[in-house]
Structure formats: C-alpha cells, structure tokens
Specification:
The complex is a heterodimer. By secondary structure, chain A is an alpha/beta fold. Helices cover 21% and strands 28% of the residues of chain A. Chain B has 17 helices and eight strands. Classes of the chains: A alpha/beta, B mainly alpha.
Chain lengths: 163, 401
Amino acid sequence: MPLAPAITDLEQLKDRPILADLLTWRDGAVQKARFDRNELTIFVAREAIREACARLKSQGLIDFLSDLTCADFYPREPRFEVAYHLLSIKRKERVRLKVVLSGDDAVMESITPVWPSANFFEREIFDLFGIRFLGHPYLRRIMLPEDWEGYPLRKDYPVEGYR
Amino acid sequence: MGHLNPNPVLDPTEDKTMVLNMGPQHPSTHGVLRLLLEIDGETIVRMMPDIGFLHTGIEKTCEAKFYQQVVPLTDRIDYLCPMVNNLCYVMAVEKLLGLEIPPRAQWMRVMLAELQRISSHLVWLGTHAMDIGAMSVFLYCFREREDLLRIYEMVSGQRMMTSYFRIGGLALDPPLGFFEKVKKFLDIFPEKVDEYENLLTGNRIFIDRLKGVAQISAEDSLAIGLTGPSLRASGVDFDIRRDMPYCGYENFKFKVPVQKDGDVWSRYLCRVAELRESREIAKQALEGMPSGPTKAEAPKVVLPDREKMKTQMEALIYHFKIVTEGFTVPAGEVYHAIESPRGEMGYYIVSDGTAKPMRVHMRSPSYANLQALPQMCEGRLIADVVAAIGSIDIVLGEIDR
C-alpha cells in the first residue's frame, strides 16, 4: 500500500469540522494544516494555543487531551514543535495541534486551566526540553533531579550525556 | 522568568498539619513511587506524587537506535504487558511505512495482546487484594499467570521481555502444540475467575474497604486525563478497541464493562469483568485463526526466513542490509494509540527519512492516571491511599520511562 501524498492545501481540508471552526474563530490563529497518513495536523499561533484549546472544548468538538509532547528539530530554527494530541470521544476523532517555538524564546502559555491533565505533560517537556509554560501551577523538574544541568531530549545533548 | 517555585516540595499550610513521606520504598506503592502527604490527624489535606526514580531516558535512547532495535526497549516500559507495548510501537512504524499486515499476524497479535491483558490484570488483582489484606488471592492469581508466562515463553522464548511482535508481522510462526496450550488455558480460565470472585466479590471486609472510596466523577476524570478501566468505572463508555478499532479488533464481538460510581469498587468490578471479556476475544481469535504468512511482503523491512537466506542471494543481501544499516522510513509523524490494560497507550513517532527515529514519545497511561491520585485521596484517610493506588493500577516503569 503506497503512501498517499500529504495534503497541505487549506481549501481542500476546510470541510473538517475542527479546522473549519478554528479558521472561522480568529484570523491568523491557524498558520497552516497538513493531512498525512490519515492524521490531521493544525499549526496554531503560539499566542492563540490556550484559547484555541478552550474554544474547541467549549464548542464540544474536543473533550480529551490525550498527549502533549515536543520534538526538537535542531539545527533548524525555529527548532521546537510542541504537539497536542486531542481526542473527541463523542465523534471518535483525533486531531493534532502544533505550536512552533524558536530556541532562544522557548516560552508559551500553559493549557492547564483548560485541561488539568496537561500538568504532568508540561512539566515533562519543561524538564527534558527546557520549554517554559507561563501560568503553570508547579513548573519544576519531574523526571530528573532538581539540580540537573541541561535538557536531555534536546538534539544538541549527547545520548551518552556529559562525562 | 522568576516563575519557578522557590519553596520546598510541600510545606504545611497550617500549624496543626504535618507532612508525611510515603515511599519510594513502600510495599503498597507498586514500585518506586514517593508520595508526600500533608495530614491533619489521619485525614489527607494535600497529596503530591514525586516520580522519576526509574527514569532511564528510554525516549532518548530510541533516537540512537534503528527502528527495529527499538522494539526490545518498548518491552521494558510496561513490564507487565510487554506485547501490548510492542504492538503499539510496531503499528505506529507500520503506519509510517504504509505496511499492510497479513491476517494471521493480526489475529495472533490480538490473541496475545488479550492474553497479556489477562496476565497484567492478574498481577493487579493479586497485588491489589494483598494491599487490602487478602493474601491468598495473590497466590491464586500468580498460579494462572505462570501458565500464561509459559505460553509466552513457548511462542517467543522469553517469559517477560518477549519482543515477539516485529515491524511487519511476527518474529516467528508459533510452534507446534501452541494453540492447544492456549485452548487449554482458555477453557479452564472462567472457573478460575469464579474462584477469585468467590474470595473477593462477596467478601464483607473487602467491600467495606473499597466501596465509596476514592471516588471521581466522569467530568473530573476526563479533565485529569484518566483512561482505560479507571475511566470506564466513572461511567464514560469509551474503549479504543471498540470505538476506534485497530489491528482487526472490528472483527471481534465483545462487551465493554462500564460502571457508574467511579470508586475503587467500580474499578475492581470493571477489571474483573474485563478478565472474562479478554478471554472471550482470545477465544474468538483462536477459533478463527486464519492460515497464511505471519510476515508482510516487504523484503526491505522484514527480515527474511532463515531457509531463504541459505538459498537465495537477495534474501541474504536484504538481511545484511537491514541488520547493518536498518531501513529508511519516509519522513512524517504519526500518533498511534491502543488500549493497554491500563488505558490509552500511545506512540508519537517523528521520522526525518533516515533509519533512526527522530523522536519517539510514549504516552503512557499510568503517567496520566497518576495525576488523578491526589484528587481521589484528598479529604480521605491514609488507609484509603493504599486502596486508591491499587485501583488505578500503575506501573512505575511506564511512568518514569
């Protein structure tokens, strides 16, 4: 089964309810979208992410935060892509929101006011990638000791660690 | 930024409260979980889980391995159901590659995943009952688990770290006599569940310790990220196997046990009912087991059979190339989620087009489920904490990764 090419044209993806709702909600909130391997990814502006999540929740389009994680595309800049995997239990549909962050300004809003479950996930990202979440109730290292130096899941951190 | 909390981890808020440290070495925390409890007498005012004692950086290690070398690492995340982790990872990579899996491999995967669910639930049942004080159930559960471990050993050569599911199918065709052994286990298993239920479900002491304890409502459990049997015990009727089927689950008929109360007792009833349902699914898979190959037709990804390697030049070349330099995966990203015994197990894999994954993230159900623990326990007694930890069925290997 050969892979179908990814669709990145917003016009073609407009009939998907979540994307359609975010497009009509606010200008500039959706930067781009991609439909690849049966998964929809929506790139959301950094300033809009918390309100976008709150909007999707209040509209009843999404009711569950499955996962929240990050990937480092070093040495590309902006290097970080924070991925929100959202699930609609009612409509049995998943969607991925993404926020792109640059290395020297890795700060964004926390979505813990919308979904308290983001608490541990955001702490993990802070711990391993060094991204700061504003408005997080308790942003401290979770996996590593408090006095650990560096952020191990960044690509410029060696796999063997510093010795 | 100045937003880092400068205070120590947990400070008493009032004069009359004190902070009690529970764990990381405590028999009822099921591993190395440390809990900080602020208590007023015997009542818990605040609770804070402290984790990370088992952190081994598996996600970082994955980035330095070939795709096929990651499979044994996934066993070690959730050591009570390694095949379910294998399944989630290999399905995510197969989705990245666009690989089709032959039906026999899918049926085998479903059957073994359900047997793993049974053995994982048996460990949960045994340890949960032991935490409450019913020692004998533990021995009964481990008796049946031993039978299952022998089945895994027969099929994969390993009792626990099986790595039996590979990208593109299975490691080997099951050996002779394997299906008879599975059938024998499935035939006797319902009686055994009756036996556990005789010991526990009608037991006054057990009921008193569990009923009404550590309750959580449906809205709260969705907000805090509970999944799996713990979510279904709060009345949310959602099971990924039924509602977003993967690996051929749409071909099986099974019920999804749901309870309303959201207390420890409901979670107990849900899991015990799942023991019976998993046996049903495994039985259907065994009876309808199709014949045919157990590996996909993809010579660049799947290792060739030993026989072919000895007779065909191409097979030998592909084998050499896969082992020495891996196989490339088209660039892209996938998130694949399956229903593990504990809840939603998800793998997020980013590929940059090379033979090693750029990022592997495991969404482990225990990690999210643990967040619900403070909400369940605050305002209740210390003795209830033990029941609550048992009821969310956490595995610390999966939490710390």
